[in-house]
Amino acid sequence: MSMRRTFKLKVNQVLHRPQHHNSAAAASDHDNPLKDIKLAGAYEHVYQLSPSSEVDGLLLPGEITVGHAKEVISYVLHDENRRGTSGLLVCTNFRLMFVTDKPPYCNLIAVDNKLIGPQDVTLSNIETIYIEKQNGKRKKLYPTSRNIKDGIQKLEIHCKDFRILTYSFKLSVLGEGKNIVRAILHHSYPQDSSLSFAMEYISKKASKETSTKEASNISSKVVSLYRKVDDWEKLIMTSQAMKGRWRITSINETFSLSATMPGLFVVPSSLSDAFLKDAIHQYNNNRLPIWCYTHPNKCSLLRSSNFREESVQFQVDQKIRQEITKCDPSGRKIRMMDLNKMCPTLQQVQMSFHKLKTSCMPANEDEYMESDGKWYSTLQTIKWLQFVSCCLEVARTCVDHIDSGLGTVLLIETLGVDWTACISCLVQVLIDPTKRTIDGLSELIQREWIIGCHPFTTRLGILHQPKKSSKFQPESSTSDHPEVCKSPIFMVFLDCLYQILTQESTKVEYTSFFLTSLADGTRLPVFDTFIFNNERERNRTLQQLNQQRTTDIETISIWDWDVQYPHHVQQLFINPLYRCKRFHHLVATTTPPLGGNSIATNDDVTSPNTLDLTTTPKVEKLKSSKKSSTHHRSASDSTCLDTTTSSMTSSSTPHGHKRINSNSYEVPYQPPQGRSVFYCAGDERPDSGRSVANSRSSSTDNMAAEDDEAVVIGLVDQVNSRAPQVAERLRFVPNSANNNNDVIGCRDDDDVMQVKTGVQYLRFWKFAYLRWVSFSQLIGGGESPQVEQENKMADEIVQLASKIEHLEAQLCNGDTSVTSPPPRVDDVTVQFVSSYFPYLAISNKSANKSTLGRVYNFSRKKEGKSTTSASAPSPKIHHHHHHTEGKPPHRPAPLSPAQVAASSHHMVALSEQQQTSEGGTYNRLSSGV
Amino acid sequence: MWAMFKQSLDELTSTTPKKEDPVKAQLLLMQLVSAETLGTTPKVEEAFLEGSCISKMIGSACLTGHHLILYSHSGDNAEHWILHKNVDAIDRRFGNDKCQITLKCKDFETYCLTVLSQEDATNIANSIEVLSSLDNINLQYPFFYKATNSLSESNLGSIEEDFLMISNVSDQWRISEVNNNFQICPTYPQRIIVPKSISDQMIFKSSEFRNLGRFPILSYCHHNGRVVMRCSQPQIGTNNRRCKEDEKLINVVLGSHHRGYIMDTRTQQIALQARSKGGGTETEFNYPQWKKIHHNLSRPSALYDSICKLVEVSRDKGCAVDKWRSRLESSNWLHHVKEVLTASCLVSQCLDKEGASVLIHCADGFDSTLQITSLTQIILNPECRTLRGFLNLVEKEWILYGHPFRERCARSVYSVGKASRDEGPTFLLFLDCVHQLQHQYPLSFEFDGSLLCQIARHTYASQFGTFLCNNELERFTSRVRSKTTSLWSHLLSDDVFPSYLNPVYQPRSDTIWPSVAPQSLMLWGELFTPFVDPSAVTRRCLRSNKLYLHELRSTINELSKEVSQLEEQEEKLKT
Questions:
Q1: What is the DSSP letter of B137?
Q2: Is B350 on the interface with A (CB under 8 A)?
Q3: Whole-prediction pTM value?
């Protein structure tokens, strides 16, 4: 609940956010629009006087200003009326920043990102720069462009995330435009990763901040980075199926053998280091077959590059394959999958992505609407979805092979760093439930993509490669060689994950927002995750940096979401449909997939790492809302929870540890082994269970947390146990005579996911590709509000549960003095959440227009031709409308009073916001422009 | 022959105590349909049934007056019923050792029945052919169907209720009996709401001026007092007829100061050409307070062609991956969806933003007109987004005001060539538009997509009498309302409606403006491609999502109950 509440506040803040550095007074007075305007007027002067000092407070550690322009007008995205806000445009070595104290006309991001503001864009996100001269000539700038003259009227920046930013220098001093454009151009295309901002940032940050880290990261567990042996050991030691057959080798620890292989990797135990050292050069790109995954049925998944064609030592390849075969006790044949043949080429993907980008960045609304008749055929010619479908299909083939126990699969690709990463990740997500959680998925991506040395720098075009102009003309690109080819394979992978999410939304923990955050993360050079081509490059760069500085610097990985998002935003990563199962899965991820050995389990549970598990957000909430915690639910109380009374018995141990006996009924939604270790351990393995209890109850805090968690789990169990009955109730499908008997069945989470891979089944990922196209959003419609609503329901359950706990506590103790839990505060009304929430935020004005879509457009188009026919009503409509409202032409109608009323008290901030821009600010601006 | 029938009847009565009274049905059919055409094979012991939506069944096939029934031999007592009325086309493929009959149904499903004897196959095929196209309304299945579950009194489309709502907004209206016994307009109900200041005599005059007597009549009254009215085209003809009463009738709705819009769902050209056939469109000269809008919407026959192509594509499982989307596009169905939504948006905009009343008509006033009036209400009126409200809307707009269901839904996509010009999925297009809205605003509807699917299936073949006739007069003559069960009372009955509820429903009180950009329109997977679209494919999975949400909902309810109980206890404790 606390999250929801803060969220409301945050929206409020974000609306005014651009920069609340001005003064504390300004921040606190946000609720009063009039005051805001006054302040806005006052600060204009401040900017003119000393821009740099104003900006300093906003800069990140290590960030320096390299250029600025005053009185720049930032235009609203896709607004044909050229409405904008004036402010200060600053270029730093990290980003392009727009600073204004005026409330923005349209709020671009509702997400509260700690690193960049809603109107900022990182330099590595900049794809193309266009300038417009006073004579209206538009010109594209290249990194090599030198000849930039005065008199730049407009600057248009096309970003890699499909966003378009437009600035005008009409009001600025002559020459400022030129200067800042030069600065942007100079800093946007770095040629060496050691120049990346991340290096500046981490070195400065390390010295500044010591350890003020709050433990609010969404994954309370630390994501294994797989740079240490421990991480790998945890991975292979816990699996019964792997025991003794696979080992970790460190032959490449110094990256002297292979530049593109991880420092540590897993190979069949029978292969000696000496042999591997010899064999490694017989493979393309020096990549040996390395282990990715082993199924409980002992079939494994491996990936490698092609065996060198010119090599004469065939026996090396054969020997390795033999040994891999031996790792499978049944000795099943290895299946080789040549991804070069099965997947599209890198160039094809790049071209497709380029087309996709073109069609998702309409210059104006007309262009967007005109795609009308041909949208589906455009989608077909783009081929993007065909490629996604292809990847899923290949992954499914692998999954079928492994899951049905036909044998080990070896993925082969020329370089072994692109599709092998994508396919092996997808296979593991589909086959292994533990990889479907946020933690599991993060670790998987870290292992397969980052440690697996996918060349991010090259593929994403982060560095400018001066010789080849591939960055700007992907079609005519001469850099066809896969080693230097730019190609968004990672984006294909994320799209595949999105398709899995849409098809099986109860089975994966991540949301669309998590995926787009990952995509955006690749353009946020603060983390060391996506800025290197391989581990060797990373190591060398960091070594150099360390040599320059005396203190050791600490890199930040993207999985440290705290750096980027506050806790309430991180909550949006969690799929609400999955959330209630989260507790089981947290446990499940720390336990061996097939029961495992109890010693390992025990260690796991008692390690400090897993103690953190109990402080999952949910539990924290419970904990905060309830101070007294060591009471027990009495039998009489539990009768209220009808159906499960008979099967659910609660008892208390001397330690206040509650055991829930769940063996008497089936729990459809939950991987049994996970909970059995955690809660029913006492029943099956008394010793380990007892020790768990002991270690936990050592501190009262832990006990409280655990008690709470038990309650929540009990709650979830109730939900689960009720499932069959609900299913029973809903099974009655009203039959017309011809309606047949459908089979309804809920499968277990443990199952292999069956995704449909045909193009027909795939959905266009609007949330990622169209999120900056403001007129394509729906207010209160689309997927995001539904997710919000589901979140609300999940919250409600937890809230109610804690309330029950609380009331019971009062009844049992007879103690009425205990403070009651805080009343539920309604969050932002769902109907005002946009379909691209948390990106394009609510802006009632643009809402009015965009949602009318074609209609509005229809009327406007006809306006020109209205002489020819009487068929267009709308010239009349709009004329009439403007006349009565007294507004400049084409402005969308404001909210009707009824609508405003409907928006109710939740949206006070918004409607005020609207009035502000409606009344003072906008008019002033438009006249100024 | 009789003996065989008797035998199968006996079996039927012993095995199927439910759904219909087979003896009565069969006897009646025996009397009415000549024995020759019915064929002589009522029962086949060994038959296989395969279908796109069922698993393969082996058992005995039995032919009754209204159904083809397959009893499974596998011991699980499974049976599958196919209503004859649902069969759209029959394909016969007779080989030496087995004979296949493919039944293509109006709900786009296909079944394949395999029997061993050629004689049996021919008989079955012939019988189904005859029985699926019985014209006599009294032989239709709804007249034989007895509901087994308890039904609720639906009382939808009640004029009193409607009038009460309107009276809250405006006192300018009254209930008139002018159409008693359908004397002035057979496609309107007997009791209607008309402006207070207009006499019955004037309405009579106006109805003479309008095509089919469909004079301008109130459809929806917005909360700002502005109204949507519908009618048919005026019969201006070549000699420029005018009708003062008609002008008065619609002007009085406006009041003296306001202007309104007349939306003609034909192009200006077509509307003017209609004059040569005695029709036409209002002239600005005679209706100075009104502004004309022409928004071209396709005629039912064009929609029919479109849906045929669409179903062909969506059911083509072997379609090349690269072609699928462009073929879908060339069916033009989504274009029709977009046009209807656009027109409805425009009308809603006029009403809500402009504060202007709108009069809508096409040629007859019971096709595209009804699409727009009903969608406008869904966009503007939150009440219509509830389960009951929606059914009420369908009853009120489509059933009572004369959408010719019998003509439009006699055949479906598989009888290309055999279908008459009157054939056309107008109503289906409307449902698709509602589906688009539902997809765009998943929280704003109390019901979910499966309700729309059910309704769509029932329009073509049903055990309920709701969609039987063309208009109220026909229903009155055949006594449909008293002799058959209503689909609405079934859907609203206590044990049925909960399964159609949307677990994430969040009532909102304002308008929902749909997006008509192509990127926002989706193919209605649940109906057209039930095994293809991700939203419905993994049907099981989809269901389990929904189930899960329902669970959450019921958990919330139970927990709140517990909370209130506890609170009560605590209160007692305190006192």
A1: G
A2: yes
A3: 0.77
Any residues with CB less than 8 A from the CB of B135 and at least 6 apart, and which?
none
Nearest CA in chain A to B333: A373
Cα A98–A104–A109 angle (5° rounding)? 80
Q: What is the pLDDT of residue A86?
A: 85
pLDDT in the model for residue B51? 77
Q: At what angle do helices B426-440 and B449-460 cross, to 10 degrees?
A: 170
Q: Which residues of chain A have pLDDT under 70?
A: 1-54, 76-82, 103-110, 193, 206-221, 369-373, 465-480, 550-552, 579-750, 814-832, 840-929
CA within 13 Å, CB half, A577? 24
> A515: which 2 tokens?
């995926």
Neighbours of A502 (CB within 10 A): 16
Q: What is the Cα–Cα distance from A166 to A84, expressed in whole angstroms? A: 9
d(CA A160, CA A122): 10
Assess contact for A167 and A154: CB atoms under 8 A.
Answer: yes
**Residue recorded with tokens 């709470």:** A708
User: Given CA atoms A232, A237, A241, A243 in this order, what sign does their dihedral have?
Assistant: positive
> In this predicted structure, what is the pLDDT of residue A345?
92
- Rounded-to-integer distance, Cα A456 and Cα A486, Å: 9
Q: How many CB atoms lie within 10 A of CB A371?
A: 17
- Closest by CA to A157, choosing from A136, A132, A191, A194, is A132
Q: Do B506 and A789 touch (CB under 8 A)?
A: yes
Please name the residues between 822 and 851 in chain A that touch chain B, using a CB distance below 8 Å: 830-831, 835, 848, 850-851
CB contact under 8 A, B443 and A831: yes
**Burial, A490: exposed, middle or buried (Cβ in 10 Å; 0-12, 13-18, 19+)?**
buried
Task: Say what the ipTM of the complex is.
Answer: 0.83
Q: Rounded to an integer, what is the distance from CA A485 to the centroid of its chain?
A: 26
H/E stretch holding A180: helix A176-188
Residue whose C-alpha is closest to residue A758's, from B70, B40, B525, B205: B525
Which residues on neighbouring strands pair with residue B103, listed in sequence order? B90, B111
B144 in A contact zone (CB under 8 Å):
no
Residue B257 in contact with partner chain A when CB distance is under 8 A: no
CA dihedral of A855, A861, A864, A870, whole degrees rounded to 10: -40
User: Which residues are bridge partners to A301 per DSSP?
Assistant: A293, A409
**The two three-digit tokens of residue A792, written as one number:** 């609300």
B27 residue type, one letter: L
SS (H, E, C) B296-330: CCCCHHHHHHHHHHHHHHHCCCCCCCCCHHHHHHH
Nearest to A806 by CA among A797, A787, A796, A819: A819
Cα A361-A365-A370 angle, rounded to 5 deg: 85
When computed from its CA atoms, the radius of gyration of chain A, rounded to whole angstroms, is 29
Tell me the two tokens of residue A253. Answer: 């620890």
Amino acid of residue A455: P
Task: Give the span between the Cα atoms of B332 and B312, in whole angstroms.
Answer: 13
* C-alpha–C-alpha distance, residues A63 and A92, integer Å: 7
pLDDT at B174: 93
Q: Around A313, how many Cα atoms within 13 Å sit in the side-chain half-sphere?
A: 11
Instruction: Give chain A's count of helices (H) and strands (E).
Output: 39, 16
pLDDT at B39: 53
CA–CA dist B112, B49 (Å, integer): 6
Helix (H, G, I), strand (E, B) or coil at A95: strand
Measuring CA to CA, which residue among A847, A623, A872 is closest to residue A107?
Answer: A847
**Are A679 and A630 within 8 A, CB to CB?**
no
The span from the CA of A111 to the CA of A109, in Å, is 5
DSSP A867: T
Q: Do B107 and A738 touch (CB under 8 A)?
A: yes
The count of other CB atoms within 10 Å of the CB of residue A820 is 13
